[in-house]
Amino acid sequence: MLVEESDFEQLRREATQAARDVEKLPLLPGPDKEAFYPAADYLRASLARELLVRRKRLGLTQEQLAHLAGIPVKILIAAGSGQHPARPRTLGRIVDALEAEERKQSRN
Fold it and tell me: Rounded CA gap, 2 and 5, in Å?
């Protein structure tokens, strides 16, 4: 397959940015000494990674997403770090805000 040079450069820039974004994702916890993975920590980190990827894909800042979700920025940052558990209602508000923004952007 052949692509225009400008398209190739755009794809290369996007791949480079995606690689940088992966480096900034919260780390998934490793196994303990018995080779078990801590389920709650893994779930928190997985959720944080998903929220971060979706937010960045939509081009939203933390402040913008917090505003759309109706939560303080510090709560969003804590949930996005994967280090602090977020309440289910808070996670629901964040997910609802992301889904609403995805629908909005898909119409445009």
Answer: 9
For 50-86, what is each residue's pLDDT tens digit?
A: 998 899 899 999 999 999 999 999 999 988 887 777 8
| Residue 4: other Cβ atoms inside 10 A | 8
Identify the CA nearest to 97 among candidates 107, 105, 86. Answer: 105
Higher pLDDT, 96 or 38: 96
| CATH architecture designation of domain 38-107 | Orthogonal Bundle (1.10)
CA 27 to chain centre: 12
Take residue 85 and report the two structure tokens written for it: 């558990």
Query: pTM score > 0.85 for this model?
Result: no
Backbone angles phi, psi at 74, to 5 degrees: -65, -30
Reference 100, options 58, 45, 48, 50; nearest CA is 58
